[in-house]
Amino acid sequence: MGWVESLQKAIDFMEEFILDDLSIERIARQASTSEFHFQRTFAILTDVSVGEYLRRRRLSLAAQELSNTDHKIIDLAYKYGYDTPEAFSKAFRKQHGITPSEARKNIGKLNCYNRLVIQVNLKGAEPMRYKIVERDRFQVVGIKQEFSLKNEENVKGIPKMWDMVNGDGTIDRLAKLNNGEINGILGVCVDKRINQSVQSIDYWVATEHKGEGTEDFLTLEIPASKWGVFEVHGPMPDAMPKVWKQIFSEWFPSNQYEHAGTPELEVYTDEDPSSLDLYSEIWIPLK
Questions:
Q1: Fold of 130-286
Q2: Where are any strands of DSSP class E within the chain?
């Protein structure tokens, strides 16, 4: 089964069990991938998190029931996963712009999100510059934080981590230690799933460093791998997500490679992040 089909299978599973308390673990299992890689791929391709997709779909279905049935609002609140009618009403108003009572009376318009169907765009209108490289294992040094995949805490926490290291001098100290083949500061995602009970990742801000480790920083060994190294051109924060989307929506479907499941890297240079000519890279381990 290809990765597009696997992703659609997971989406169909979400729809079938939309009223259940679904965990990322259960959903990702349908796609035969880890929680982190499913969550990341889903967000890259759809521009929405798994949790937000489920919330939108449930509130869309709730709106349909309000319009077409006489079920009590309190019963619908519990049915679609809200502990109180007040919490349901607040979430409903945020999505639809009207209250459940107004929806029942057909006052105002509803913002309903339809069932998602993955369609991959293979037109390749914009060229992608990349190279395939093979490297033995290498060492990076830096700092790490563990982020839970529950409630997508990693999505919220990683940007805060970057704000911290940019403000406390960590980036400057890492730049002085950079003496490896990769020139720049790295964002490294390490999937910690050893078994189904582990639902977290380690995220590293690091740099490649040859030689002994340092007292100030932790050391991580990146395993030997074949890598797809993709060029990223343009200012942050928009340029990097654009290339990630191209990789998953255009490059993977038209190549024989799969993601190897080992740590992936984002490489940031010391150029002005707002520069139109900013150069960065994405390193994806391949099999």
A1: Multidrug-efflux Transporter 1 Regulator Bmrr; Chain A (3.20.80)
A2: 130-135, 138-148, 185-191, 200-208, 218-222, 225-233, 264-268, 279-286
CATH architecture of structural domain 3-104: Orthogonal Bundle (1.10)
Distance, in Å, from the CA atom of 222 to the CA atom of 101, rounded to the nearest integer, reads 56
Domain residue ranges of the chain, discontinuous segments joined by + = 3-104, 130-286
Rounded to two decimals, the pTM is 0.77
Kindly state the DSSP code that residue 71 receives in the 8-state scheme.
Answer: -
Question: Distance between CA 216 and CA 102 in Å, rounded?
Answer: 59
Q: What is the pLDDT along the chain (287 residues), one digit of tens a residue?
A: 466 778 889 999 999 999 999 988 899 889 888 888 888 888 888 888 899 999 999 999 999 999 888 999 999 999 999 999 999 999 999 999 999 999 998 888 888 888 887 665 555 556 788 999 999 999 999 999 998 877 777 777 888 999 999 899 999 999 999 999 999 999 999 887 654 455 678 999 999 999 876 888 999 999 999 999 999 999 988 898 889 888 887 888 777 888 888 999 999 988 888 888 899 999 999 98
